[in-house]
Amino acid sequence: MRKSIKLEAQAVTLALKTIPQWAFIDERGGVLKREIKFKNFNQAFGFMAQVALFAESTDHHPEWSNVYNRVSVTLTTHDVNGVSDKDIELALFIDEITSKIA
Fold first, then answer.
1. Which of 27, 31, 49, 84 has its CA 20 to 30 A from that of 6?
2. What are residue 95's phi and psi, to 5 degrees?
3. What SS3 string covers 8-62?
């Protein structure tokens, strides 16, 4: 398991250009948030299953909730108290899966 590295504000700003649907929120040391709407519950749950497999393989897990066709995702790295390279990697994966499903 590789060690997480907290990103400085400038690095987060630069990274957000590659994940424009995500918002940086200055809480809890910094988090990334995104709301995703799917056609139905099956699409939302299928998305979550694919992300869960990736998250488990990278040992970096999202905070999320699901209501019918909507999934709210929060990414942060607890051991560095903020946004890390692992959050950007997971956000990019989530965007890739979302573009294929939604």
1. 49
2. -60, -40
3. CHHHHHHHHCCCCCCEEECCCCCEEEEEEECCCHHHHHHHHHHHHHHHHHHCCCC
Give CA–CA dist 22/16, Å, rounded: 7
**Alpha-carbon span 38 to 16, nearest angstrom:** 22
Per-residue model confidence as pLDDT tens digits over 39-91: 999 999 999 999 999 999 999 999 999 999 999 999 999 999 999 999 999 99
C-beta separation of 23 from 47 below 8 A: no
Beta bridge partners of 33: 23, 74
Query: What is the Cα–Cα distance from 45 to 30, expressed in whole angstroms?
Result: 27
